[in-house]
Amino acid sequence: MNKAAILVIDDEVQIRRLLEITLESNHFNVESAETAKEGLRIAASHPPDLIILDLGLPDENGHNLLKKLREWYTNPVLILSVQNDEDDIVKALDNGANDYLVKPFRTGELLARIRSALRSTAPEDNNPVIDCKDLQIDLATRTVKKNNELVKLTATEYKLLSLFTRQEGKVLTHQYLLREVWGPGYINQSQYLRVFIAQLRKKIEKDPNRPAYIITESGVGYRFIAKE
Which of 89, 119, 149 is the last residue of a domain? Predict the structure, then answer.
């Protein structure tokens, strides 16, 4: 089996070394860069399967580097930063980051986020069926079953669930969901999203008050978790 290649762009030598040891011991190939310029050069010459990007780089703001990468780089980008302001998180996600972790981080959580991001880029079957424990979602036939019983969803509920399942594990911001489901004129109508998320949870979750599939990322958006 080929090892996934990960590029770490971070100016802290201790963090780079920690990530190299952690990732290599978990069977990833790792390259590192301490500046935006070096990271962009490595990414362009040897495109990795995933990039771990710090926002506080010495030569260029990480948000700007993310925008440059997203002009051509389509694989996952995971932000790893000390910046924990909601505006920074939302900005990074809206600029194309797949996920965001705040330093200091837990190694187990980082590895789980990496695996989830890499799964999202795996080739899909022609007729993909997503089997999540007691929930089955067939994207080809547009049917949803819970405990083998058909779940009746409205067109809007299905569109919302489809967006989640096609980007499993990725944080989807409020603005992104509102724009994709209702259109650009609704990006400030967060009440629409709250109502439909609540309705969807009632239909697919075992306990809507303690959701296992549609997870709230406070102040940012939601994440769909299909697997442990």
Answer: 119
Query: Residue 206 burial by CB count (10 A; 0-12/13-18/19+): exposed, middle or buried?
Result: middle
Mean pLDDT throughout 29-45? 95
Domain range for 111: 5-119
Same domain, 48 and 143: no
Do 55 and 134 lie in one domain? The reply is no
Judged against a pLDDT cut of 80, whether residue 104 lies above it is answered with: yes
Mapping DSSP onto H, E and C, the string for the chain reads CCCCEEEEECCCHHHHHHHHHHHHHCCCEEEEECCHHHHHHHHHHCCCCEEEECCECCCCEHHHHHHHHCCCCCCCEEEEECCCCHHHHHHHHHCCCCEEEECCCCHHHHHHHHHHHHHCCCCCCCCCEEEECCEEEECCCCEEEECCEECCCCHHHHHHHHHHHHCCCCEEEHHHHHHHHCCHHHCCCHHHHHHHHHHHHHHHCCCCCCCCCEEEECCCEEEECCCC
Question: pLDDT category, 55, cuts 50, 70, 90?
Answer: very high
The mean pLDDT of 204-216, rounded to a whole number, is: 93
Shared domain for 191 and 90, answered yes or no, is no
Same domain, 207 and 111: no
Say yes or no: 34 and 91 in one domain: yes
